Each structure stands twice: as structure tokens, then as C-alpha cells.
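Translate sequence into C-alpha cells.
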Amino acid sequence: MLIGVYLGQYCINAVTYFFLTWFPVYLVQARGMSILKAGFVASIPAVCGFAGGILGGMASDFLLRKGCSLTFSRKAPIVSGMLMSTAMIACNYVSVEGLVVAIMALSFFGKGFGALGWAVVSDTSPKEIIGFAGGMFNFIGSISAITTPIIIGYIVQGTGSFNGALVFVGANALGTIICYLLIVGDIKRMELKPR
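Result follows.
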């Protein structure tokens, strides 16, 4: 279960680090914006991601209060948020600047909405090793901070386009869904066996 959560965090962080590292470059190189304009435009998805993070947590808590299972209450926002994040692939087929920004804003909103990994870690980790479990969660998720910018750089350099990079990031959002639906299983507290 925790391996699925950790791999899901790796994948969701790929979306985050695309926006933190390559999104402004994408706006300048692929969309022809000035650096100044790209700086302002890049803040729009970030604000949407912030709002998504708050609303995703609220939605999860609302579902729990309404009597839904812990598994459904956590997974529903994660899966729906990551589905929204895959929308960025549509930017490969759109030329209208405002629509590109709106799609990217939806994508980062979805990333925020589905970013419930810490809630899942706190729901599932054995109480005796929750610090270790949280450390592993951060460690594996942070590997994505290293690999994502490098992989995107190779894709852009190799193809001369951001199209493959957007597919790569969207595929990572899909990877998060796969992790939570096929690997994680029921969300419940793990118990360590007494020695």
C-alpha cells in the first residue's frame, strides 16, 4: 500500500516540477510570450493549484463526514484531480493563447485538488514509524524534482518541441491514478507485528 502511495507521490510531483521549472520556458519558447508576460501568466496556474489544494482537502473531508469510506474519500479527489491534470496534453492541439493558459490552469488546479498524499500517509502509516514513512514519502517524491526537469530537457532537446514533454507530464498524472487504483488498495492503518 505505501509503495503505491510513494510511487503516486513521485508521479504527482512530476506535474508540480513541470510547472516550477519548465512551464515559463514553455510559454516563451513554444507560445512566443515575452519573459515578462510569461512570468505573469505562469502565476495563474499556480494560484489555481493553490485553490485546488484547499478544495481537494475540503472535498475529501466532506465525503468522509457524509459517511463515505476513507478509501473513497481520499481516492475520489486524487483520481479526479489527476484526470484534470492530464488535460495539459490538449495544449498540443490548441493555438489560442488564452485557451492554453486556461487548460494549464485547470491542470494545475487538478494537481492541487489531488494532492492528498500526506493525508493518505497519515491515515495508513503504522504509528510507530510514521516519521520514517513520511520521510520515505518525501524522499521518493523528491526524486521527481531531480528527474522531471532532466527528462523534459532531453525530450525538448531531442524533439525540438514541448509536445512530448506535455505527454510525459500528463502520463505521470495518469501514473498517479494507476498507483491509487491498482496498487494502493484500501486505505487503512497498517499495524506492525509485535516482536
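Note: DSSP finds seven helices and no strands in the chain.
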